[in-house]
Amino acid sequence: MADTAPLARRRPRRRARRVVALLYIAPAALVYVAFAIWPAIHTVYLSFLDWDGILPATSAGFSNYTDVFTDPTLGPALWHAIVLIVFFAVIPCALGLLMTALLQGNVRGMTAFRVIFFLPQVLPLVAVGITWRWLYNDDGLVNQGLRWIGLGGVTRAWLGDYNLALVALGLIGTWAMSGLCMVLFLAGAQKIDVALYEAVALDGGGPVRRFFAVTLPALRGEITIASVITTIAALASFDLVFVTTNGGPVDRTTVPGLLVYRLAFNESDIGRASALAVVLTLIVIVFVTAIRTLTREKA
Amino acid sequence: MRTRSLAAVAAAMVVALSACAESGGTEPAKPSDVSKDLTTENITLTLAYTDDPPTQALIDAFHALHPNITIKGQQTPFSDYVKSIKLSMAADTPPDIAEYNPGAMRSLVPAGLIYDLTPYEKLYGWGEAFPASSLEVLRSNQAAKEYGTGGLYAVPGALSVLGVYYNKSMVTAAGIADTPSTLADFEQDVAAVKKGGKAPLSLGGLQVGGFQLWNAFTNALGDESQYRNWVYGKPGSTIQTDAAKQAAQKVIDWVNAGYIPASANATADSDAQANFTNGKSAYLVTGNWAASAIEKAMGDNVGFFLLPQATAGDSVVASGASVAYSISSKTKHPNEAAAFLDFMRDAKAATVQFDTGFMPVNNETAVQATGVRADIAADFKKVVADNGIVPFPDFASPNMIDRLTSGVQGLLSKKTTPDAFLTSLQESWTEYHG
Amino acid sequence: MNPSRTATVARYLVLSAMAVAVLLPFVSIVLAALHPSGAQISGLSLPTTWSWSNFADAWREANFSHLVLSSVIIAAGVVPLAVVLATLAAYSLATLDPLGGRAMSVAFVLGLTLPIELVVVALYFDLRQVGLTNSYLGVILAETALFMPFGVYWMQNHFASIPRELLEAARVDGAGSLSILGRVLLPISWPALTTLGLLYFMWSWNQFLLVIVLMQNPDLRTAPAGLGFFVGQYSTNIPLLSAASLIVIGPIVVLYLIFQRNFVSGITQGAVKG
C-alpha cells in the first residue's frame, strides 16, 4: 500500500506512524515517571527544605548538604559505604578472576557448581543477614571454626566488635557476591579462542602471562558488569545492615541507606534524609562512570 | 544536547513543585461532642501497641464489659514501634488508639494527629483518679517542646519501673545474703559473683538495655529534679552533670572489671533476658514489663530490687513510665476510645495490670502478690511515695534514642569518653529545644 | 599420576572448597531449624531430636499466613503488569522508531543506576497524599516503576536481536504493528519473557526497604519485611528464627533450582554493557 502512495503523502504518514508508536510506550512511561522519576525529582526538591513530614516546610537552602558533610554521623556513613565496596566488589572480583585463572579450560560438572555459586544472588538479603547473625554469634559457626583450629583466643561477638563489625558485615557481602563474579568470569573464559592461548605458549609464556595477556583482556566486558552490579549493591546497601547491626556498635557500621531511613522515618528530618539520598545517588553515578571509563581505557 | 533538555524538564518540574509547598495539619486537635454515652452498634477499633503484657489482656477485659466494641490489636516490637508509629499515625487510616511514646510521637502533638484529651479529663475526672506523676509526663505544650505542662495527650494503662532482677541461687552461691542498700554494696555483690567465676550481668547493648544501665546509675548518683527537667525540655537544662558523667564512667569501669560481657554490643534485649533466665548471669537490669516472662522461666528463683542510691537512706529514685494510650484525631469513635482509656482505672483493669507484671493505675485496689511481683510491688509503693519516678531519657528529643544507643555502645567498647557521650546527648537536646 | 590428572583433581578441590564455603551457612541454619525450639545451639551441631515443629511454630508466631499472602498478591500484581508494560515499550523502542525514541531509551537506562533510597523518601509522601500507602496497589505500582528500566532494557535488547527480515516480511504482508508483536514476535520471545518474569518475581519477593516504608500496617507486610521485624522478637530463639528464614527463602530457592539457567542469564546479561 505504502509503496503506491505518492512521496508527498508518505512523509506525514511516517510521522503519524512514529506518533502511534508512542502509544506503546505511554503506559510504561506513565508508571515510570509517576512512581520513580517524579519521586526522585521530588526528593531533590525536598533536600532544600526543612520539613518534619507533618508541619509546614521552610526553605533550608544548602544547609542540609553542608550537614551531610559536617555532621558526625552522616559523613562516616558515606565512608563506610566506600569501605564496603572493597568487600562487595573488589574482593569478589579478585576471587572470581583467581578462580578463572586456576580453572582454565573446560570443567565437567560445571553446571552443578554454577548453581551453587550463584545461589546467594537470589536470596532475600534479610534472610542472609539473619543467617549470618547466627553464624557470627558467640556460639556460632565462625567462632566454632576458630576454636576448632586452635584460635579460641580471637573469638568474639563479631558484629558487636568496635573495630571489626564493619569487616564482618563486609564479608557477608563477599560471600553473597563472589559467586556472581565467578559465574560471570568462568562463562566468559569459556568463550576465549584456544588459539590465543596456544600463541602465548609458543612464545614461551607461562600461565601467569597467559592470564594477563589473554584472559584478562577478554573478560573486560564481564569485569565491567560485575563491578557495576557489586558496587551499586555496596553503596545502596540497607537490608543487610538493618537486620544485622542496625548501624552499631557506636555507628561504626552505619551506611547511607540506613541513615536515610532513620532520618526520614524515625527522626522526621526529611530535608537531611533527602540530601543524603541525593549525595548517595551522585556517588553511585560517579563510581559507575569511573568503572566504565577505566575498563574501557584498558582496551 | 539531550541531557540539557532533560535537565530543563527537571528544572521546570522543581519550579512547579515549589508552587505546591509541603504542608499538613498544624492545629492541636481537641475532640468535640465528648460524651460518656457509648454506641450500641457493633464497632471495631484498632489499637497499635508494643508492650504486651498488658495491652492484649486489657483489650480482652474491656471487650468483656462492652461486647459490641471490638478492639483489634496490632503489636510491633519496641525498637520497631518507635520507628514506625509516627508514620502509621500520619497515615490516612491510622489506628484509633495507639500506645504513646513521648519520644517517638512528639511531632504528632503540634500536627494535631493525636487528641488533646483535656475535655475527657474534665468529663471523667481523670485528674483525681490517676497518680499525678503518671499524668505529668503525658502532658505537653502545643509545640511539644516541653513536657509536664499543657494538654494531656495520653492516659496511663499500667505503670512500670526499672530495676534489677537477680538469680537467687546464683547470688546465694556467691555468698550474698541480702539485697544491697547502697550502690557500693551492689558493686561489692557484683564483684563477689565475678570472683566466683560467674557472669554478673547480662546487657543488651545492641538495643536499649545499655542506656538503661547508664540511666539507672545516673539516677542513683544525682539529683532527680535536674534530670527530670532535662527530659521534659525545661529551657536551660543540661545532662552534662557530674552524676551523669560518673554514671558513664561507671559503665566503663564495669566493662574493665569484666562485670559486663564483652559481647554486649551484639546482644539484643531479648538475648540479654534469655541469658539471664537461662542462668548465664546473676543480674539483669530491666523493667517490670519483663516480670511475667522472667517469672515464667525462673519460678521463684528470681528476685527484684531497685538500684540502690549512693547514700543509704536517700529517697528512692527509679526510671519509670507507663504503658499509656493516645487517641488518633482521625478516629470515627472518639467517645468509645475514651471509654477504653477510662477503663484503665477500673478495678478489673487493676487486676489485669497486676497479673501481667505491672503496677495498677488505681492505687486503691488491693492486690495479692507473691514471688518476684511482691518484690516489685513493695518497691514500687516506696518509689511512688517518695515521688521518685523519673522519665526515661529517650523521651528528651526525637533522635535521643539513637544517640543513647550508639553512645553507650561507645562506652561499652571503651571508645567514647563520658564527656564525649554527654556532649553528643546535649547536642541533640539543644538542636531540638534550642 | 600425570600432571593433567593432578591439575584436574586440584581444580575440583578448589571448586569444591568454594562450594562448601557457599553452602555452609545454609547447612548451619537448616540444622539449627531442626533443633527443639528455644534450644541453645552451638555452631554446627546435629540435633538429638529432629523437630519439624519449628516451621509450624514460626509460621504461626510470625503471622506468615498474612505475610506470604501479601507477598503473593504483590508479586502477582507486579509480574504481569511490569512484564506487559516493559514489553510494549521495548517493542516500540526497538522496532517502531518512535518520536524521541533515543532519548526515551536513555531515560529508561539511566534508571538502572537509581538507588531506591533516592526515590523512597518522596514516594512515601506522594503516595500518602493520594491514599496509596498501606495499600497493595501502591507497592505494586512503585515496584513496577522501579523495575521498569531493567525490563525495557532487557526486552529492547531481545527485540533488537531478532532478524529485521522477519519484521519486514510481516509488514509487506500488510500486518499492523500490533499483530506483528502478537503473531510474529511473541511466539519466539517466550524464553526472554520467562526470564524477565522470574527476575521480577524474585525482586518483588525480596524487596524490603520499599515495603517497610510504604506498609506501616504489620498485617500487610511481605514475608521478608515481616522476617526483618521478627528478628527483634525472637533473636534468641535460633531454631525458630532459622525456620522462619527458611520459610522466606524457600519459594525463591525452589524457583531458582527449576529455572537456574534463566536466573543466571538474566542477572549476568541484563547488566548494562560497558
TrEMBL record, chain A:
* Entry annotated with the keyword 4Fe-4S: no
Q: What is its main location?
A: membrane
Q: Which GO terms describe its biological process?
A: transmembrane transport
Q: Known CDD domains for this protein?
A: TM_PBP2 (cd06261)
What Pfam families does the database record attribute to this sequence?
BPD_transp_1
Record field: transmembrane: 21-41, 77-103, 115-135, 164-187, 223-243, 273-294
Where is the protein localized? Answer: Cell membrane
The ABC transmembrane type-1 domain is annotated at 78-291
Q: Which GO terms describe its cellular component?
A: plasma membrane
Q: Which Gene3D superfamilies match?
A: MetI-like
Q: Which InterPro entries match?
A: MetI-like (IPR000515), MetI-like_sf (IPR035906), UgpAE/MalFG_permease (IPR050809)
Family (UniProt): Belongs to the binding-protein-dependent transport system permease family.
What is the protein's name according to its record? ABC transporter permease
UniProtKB/TrEMBL annotation, chain B:
Q: Which InterPro entries match?
A: Bact_solute-bd_prot1, SBP
Keyword annotations? Signal, Transport
Q: Which domain of life is it from?
A: Bacteria
In the UniProt record, does the keyword Signal occur?
A: yes
Q: Where is the signal peptide?
A: 1-21
A Pfam family (short name) is SBP_bac_1
Family affiliation = Belongs to the bacterial solute-binding protein 1 family.
This protein is called what? Answer: Sugar ABC transporter substrate-binding protein
UniProtKB/TrEMBL annotation, chain C:
Stated membrane topology is:
Multi-pass membrane protein
InterPro entries on file? MetI-like, MetI-like_sf
Where in or outside the cell it occurs: the entry states: Cell membrane
Looking at the record, the residues that make up the ABC transmembrane type-1 domain are: 68-259
Its name, as the record gives it, is Sugar ABC transporter permease
User: Looking at the UniProt record for this protein, which Gene Ontology cellular component terms does it annotate, in alphabetical order?
Assistant: plasma membrane
Species name: Phytohabitans rumicis
Entry keyword annotation includes Cytoplasm: no
Q: Biological process GO terms, please?
A: transmembrane transport
What the record says about family reads: Belongs to the binding-protein-dependent transport system permease family.
The residues that cross the membrane are 12-34, 67-91, 103-124, 136-155, 184-203, 238-259
Q: Which UniProt keywords apply?
A: Cell membrane, Membrane, Transmembrane, Transmembrane helix, Transport
